[in-house]
Amino acid sequence: MLRFILRRLFLALITLAIILVIITLIPNIAPGDPARKIAGGTASPERLIEVNESLGLQDPVSAQLANLATSVFTLDFGESFSVAKGEPVMSLVWSALSNSAKLVGFSLLVMVPLSILGGLVAAYKKDTWIDRTIVNTGLAFSAIPDFVAGVFLLAFLAVPFEFFKVQASAPPGSSALVQAQHLLLPVVAVLMVYFGYIARVTRAGTITALDSDYARTAFMRGLSTREVFRKHIARNALQPTVAVLGTQLGYLFGGMVALEIVFGYQGIGNLIIRAVDRADYPVLRAGVLTVAIIYMIATLAADLLVAYMNPRARANLGEAS
């Protein structure tokens, strides 16, 4: 197990190094003068030199890469140039990340149980109208882009019903219930997009587990359906679902830009888009690296959990360590 963890950490570090190189090269290969984009078209030559020095763009690429790597370990990316001029970059990132964590956490709390339950029911009722209804409904929802689902919910729920809020951001100091009320529509939009995908993965894993020799043996021993599901089916059927959730967690943090814009929510994805629009490279670098690190941690955690859920994989990992 230890060797497996070390190997995955090594691969994660390689991935992080590649991302650092790409982010370092962005301002160097982007068309136009990054300093002029930040300072404005009427900026004086002195101001342009100051911006270039602040970004380190006058240094060799190797020095820029070393400085960026140092920023990752010290959590110091300097100050924002345009998104929130003069504000520490990490202060902006932590605030946006906190907002994204609330939205992702609430989404997972609603999405995961409902999607897994839908997949389990569809597998148990295989080839019946219940199975077809769950699968087809999920497919229909999955075909709708998240921002379209958000606009649809705003038009048909937020406008006619006061309970549903147009803005996902609750007023400062609001209780957890009020914050959940403001986040309800974005969470429903996420559920619409992901329900079908996760339910189908769960359904496929459950059907495979039900057709296995150990499941048939358990039924022949006289165990009830509930006991077979609890003791034998659930752990094996949910392994693909856990793997999928791990890979999608990074997207939930950084990829819900359209939903954040539709609902006026200041998440990490929205922050990255504003940084791109305003050529705020310190904020852009910090935001992209934050999402990348979250993605790597989530993927590693999912792999470890899948290994724990699979006795044969655990045995193999134990032998390898």
Structure report:
- This protein has 321 residues and is mostly helical.
- It folds into two domains: 2-74, no CATH class; 89-320, Orthogonal Bundle (MetI-like fold), CATH 1.10.3720.10.
- 78% of the residues lie in helices and 0% in strands.
- The longest helix has 36 residues, at 89-124.
- The protein is globular, with a radius of gyration of 24 Å.
- 35% of the residues are buried.
Write out key terms for the chains shown.
MetI-like fold, 321 residues, globular, 78% helix, mainly alpha, 2 domains, disordered C terminus
Per-chain topology:
Layout lengths: L1 H28 L4 H6 L5 H11 L5 H14 L14 H36 L4 H14 L3 H13 L17 H35 L2 H8 L4 H13 L1 H16 L2 H6 L5 H10 L3 H29 L1 H10 L1
Helix pairs in contact: 1-4, 1-14, 5-6, 5-8, 5-11, 5-13, 5-14, 6-8, 7-8, 8-10, 8-11, 9-10, 11-14, 13-14, 14-15
Summarize this entry quickly.
Helix content is 78%, strand content 0%. With 321 residues, the protein is an all-alpha fold. It is globular, with a radius of gyration of 24 Å.
Order of helices and strands: HHHHHHHHHHHHHHH
State the end-to-end CA separation: 5 Å
Overall structural class, as computed from helix and strand content, comes to mainly alpha
Gyration radius, to the nearest Å? 24 Å
Count helical runs. 15
Q: Average pLDDT across residues?
A: 81
Low-confidence stretches: 317-321
Residues in helices, as a percent range? over 70%
Strand fraction band? under 5%
